């Protein structure tokens, strides 16, 4: 297939060619934005490694009732409505891995972006949130 054949094909199939170009641009833009966001997502198994080997600070952003019903061992509860990058529980943690956990992994991204902007070096969001943790058959502890 020559370049002329490709151009002729695109001309005969204009809508399909435009759709392909649009999807390609959307994928590239999405990937660039993900790389520049300043934080990463972690799978539950990766989080256990960070907790066990890198002294990760796990912040659970769910409401206190949800936190008390079950949370990752060693995590601290800071409700999303009270979350601030200058929170006293986060002081001194700018060089530590900080992992944010919410219910589904969807709302922690905003808090992660604030931490990254405030100069935290290793910011992560648990992929799937507590639901992802439970889906990986990992335990929760109850109470405070």
From TrEMBL:
Pfam families: Rhodanese
Segments crossing the lipid bilayer: 6-30
CDD domains membership: RHOD
One Gene Ontology term of the molecular function aspect: transferase activity
Gene3D superfamilies, sorted: Rhodanese-like domain
UniProt-listed InterPro entries: GlpE_sulfurtransferase, Rhodanese-like_dom, Rhodanese-like_dom_sf
Domain Rhodanese positions: 52-142
Keyword Cell wall biogenesis/degradation applies: no
Lineage: Bacteria, Pseudomonadati, Pseudomonadota, Gammaproteobacteria, Lysobacterales
Protein name (database record): Rhodanese-related sulfurtransferase
Domain of life: Bacteria
Organism: Solilutibacter silvestris
Keywords for the protein's UniProt record, in alphabetical order: Membrane, Transferase, Transmembrane, Transmembrane helix
